[in-house]
Structure formats: C-alpha cells, structure tokens
C-alpha cells in the first residue's frame, strides 16, 4: 500500500489534546508541589507527533478552546510537522487541563479540569471529512466516547474512515477519573471494540477490561474479535506481547533510566503505525512484525528518559542508536 510519488501515506489521529501541568519535582502530591511546568499532551496528539518525528505524515482531528492554550497546542502540532487542518476552535469552552502527579517511580496520577472542555463539544458536522477520508490509518482513543456530542463525532469519523479504506487503530487510553463510573468506562470502551483492526492495551487496561488478575495469553485472547488483525499488550518495563490470527509472542524491553512514563505508550503506537501504514503485510509476517515491535519498544523506552511526552518523543536516529547498542 505504498503512497504514490514516494510520499508516505497519512495517519490521522482523533480525540483529545490538552495541557498537562507537571510538578517541578517528582514524588510529591499535587498539593505539595512547589510549582508546575505546562506540557502539551493528549494521547492521540502525542501519537500524531510521534509519527511525524519518525518521518511519517500525520494529522490531528479534534477541538480546542479559542484561547491561548488552544492556539498554543495547534501551533505545537504545526511546529512538529502535524497537519492541523482537522482542528476546530470553540469560543465558548476552554482547552482541557490536567494536573499530573509524577510518583517517584515515574508513574502518573491525574486530576482533570473539563467542565466541559472544548474537546467534549466537537460535533459530527464540524469534522473535516475530506481529511479523514484521505487517511490510510485512522487512530483513536476512548475519551471522546464519554459524552455527547463528541461521542457521535467519534462514531461518524470512524465510519467515514473505514468506508474510505483506512485501517482502524484503537488505544483505549483508560483515564478512570474522567468517566462517571468504572462500569460505564468498560461498557463504552468495549462498545466500539469490534470495529478496530489494531488494538493496543496496557497490562492494567487488559485486567480492567477482562476483570482478570492475570496478564496471560488466555486473558488477552478473550478480547480477540474477528475483525482484528493485531492485538498488542504493553507491559511497561517488561516489553510487549502480540497476537494475530496466525501467531503470537512477546518482544523484550530495553532497559533505560526511567524519569517519566508520560507518552511512552503513544510513542510505541506511533512507531508501530508509521511502520505499517504503507505495508500492512507486516501484520501477517511474524519476523517482520517482531522487528517493528522491537523498534516500537525502543521508541517507548527512549520517551521515558525525559520529562513530558512531546519533548521526549524520539527521532529515527535516536532509536537506531539505542537499537545498535543492544
């Protein structure tokens, strides 16, 4: 599925983009933090920038507040080579904010300010359908499923992308504090499960969605559906597992000095999608898929070595340096 005239095919990310406020010191509560650094974030936007940083073509579709933060975020996408043609601005709602606690092990806890935020107000009639139709891969999360009208916009965008022949890629990116209940989160995340052809979940998300305490093959395969081409379970510092119709296995991690895990999963997804967007046969050949997943693991690992997601997303040369050293 190579793009014409040598140009890479387009990957479109859909969902939220926001500002993360990260404490200037790790291992303290939000109340104890002496100060905060503002860091652009939002998983689908991180994925788009990860793709671009690796030399791919990416666009973002979503809604931001018509405020300083919203225009700053749109500018950051453009600065990082991501098309902002799919962005709408809302004059009546603010750009979403999240305060992020960095624990001493680099893991995070979140407190969100969205009452409502602009991303929640995206309507189906505001979608840039031409941009979505031009995608070879359409990637999305689950946060836009929480409330209307953005839920209907999400479903419409998926439908249009699928009809145009795009590969549908889903990373639920579970953020329980945003949902009214655990039951509603599980119900809505699974409501679009059988549409996606590539799904990535973390080990914690796997346990949440299945109700199991195990991260084994049987548990993972309970989430398999007939439309799926690749199911991935990321295991943090333990690498990842992969499942296809024909084979399954695991890929070892890279050991690095972890500072902040923000964006590691998004970096992993961006690396995977940028490698398969023009050659889906990789999903059917285990040796080639394992190489791509090794590359994706390296991207995720590098992203944990700096604070913040977007500044830490690696270039191809940075990834090759890590790969060559292992």
Automatic annotation (TrEMBL):
Residues 9-315 form the Carbohydrate kinase PfkB domain. Pathway: Glycan biosynthesis; starch biosynthesis. InterPro entries: Carboh/pur_kinase_PfkB_CS (IPR002173), PfkB_Carbo_kinase (IPR050306), PfkB_dom (IPR011611), Ribo/fructo_kinase (IPR002139), Ribokinase-like (IPR029056). Keywords: ATP-binding, Carbohydrate metabolism, Kinase, Nucleotide-binding, Transferase. The keyword Nucleotide-binding applies. It catalyses: D-fructose + ATP = D-fructose 6-phosphate + ADP + H(+). Its EC number is 2.7.1.4. Belongs to the carbohydrate kinase PfkB family. May play an important role in maintaining the flux of carbon towards starch formation. This is fructokinase.
